Amino acid sequence: MVIGLNFCPFARQELVHTRYSVCYQRKIKAVLQSLETELEHLRANQDVVTSLLIVAQGFGDFYHYLELVERADDFLDRQGYRGDFQLASFHPQYQFDGEAADDPSNYTNRAPFPILHLLRESGIEEALANYRQPQNIPLRNIAKARELGSQVLQQKLNDCKRQ
What we know:
Layout (H helix, E strand, L loop, with lengths): L10 H4 L3 E6 L4 H17 L5 E6 L6 H17 L6 E6 L24 E6 H9 L7 H12 L1 H13 L1
Parallel strand pairs: 1-2
Antiparallel strand pairs: 2-4, 3-4
Helix pairs in contact: 2-3
């Protein structure tokens, strides 16, 4: 959905430089070990710009997933990855703070499975430097999501999961 709906205008061009890994662990500590493996892979392979760690089991509950995201973000700080890498997150029930669960804006961060998205900071800086008014990207995405509506976006999310 991020690429198909152009929620991230940089994602399509980075597809060939993206690594995908699936983690079947159900405990936060074990997922963090998989996250570290991805971070080390990114460090060792400069041609890989971003990594999607798909957490396939155990984190279907959004609030339990938020605990994982918080611990993963802390892990980046504790292990010295902050400054080189940044964490983004996606979840089937993603809900922005202060938004209703059914608000279409939540779909900008929804995915068929929970995902920890690692991005190389240098890649973000380069992409933003060459994009006119990057601060407007979230506002544009919210407007687009609300224009499409929750029903259409949920169908697209269901279609993604079936594929």
